Target: Ig-like domain-containing protein
Amino acid sequence: MGFGSPRGQASVTSARPLECGNICQDVAGTIPEILGLTSPKYGWREMSLSEDAGSLPRFVEKVPNITVTVGRDALLPCTVEQLKSYKVAWVQVDTQTILTIHKQVITRNPRISLLHNDHRTWHLELKNVQESDRGWYMCQVNTDPMESQKGYVDVVVPPDIIDRESSGDLTVREGQDVNLTCRAKGHPTPNIVWRREDNQKIVLDAEKTGEPRAVVLECGSSRTRCVCVWGGGES
Model:
């Protein structure tokens, strides 16, 4: 995804089942409660009062908001300096699910992995992104109070006309009203426009019902088609 490693070769931790008890399940409660969990297995710890606040971990930059097309891969970068013995975790905020703790992938989602390098970079990788991945993701360090950065993943779904819910070919007399239905899906929601293949104007009257009403005017053999207009193109 174009994110280089500062030194050496980054390692990749793939999602795999762990014998970690309840922590592998979706955890109810607030995010601070989730990351307040202490576990010797993961080295999760509280900050000692004797530690110098100036030596605490700090984020090098914010976790960005990203937009990815469904089916593509996405990478959420998180870089922390002066981590020392503290641990980094990734949490899916909307579902309050712990995804990773330190170098271990906690989630059972096989599309999620962690790219980490030199105890500094902790990048969350989402393979084959799905609509269910849309939402906020938080990278956090177990200082007290907790330090965190979060970014939003917006999943774009190209527009597609729903054929079974849209009108097919119709034959009507000149001057008659015709009701044509066109339904489409996608994210962001696509705009629907009607076009005649001969590029002639379609007369619309929406004043009476609030809904566009097409009146057939000398169409002859010309065909009218429904088009989804979307930021990424047409369908």
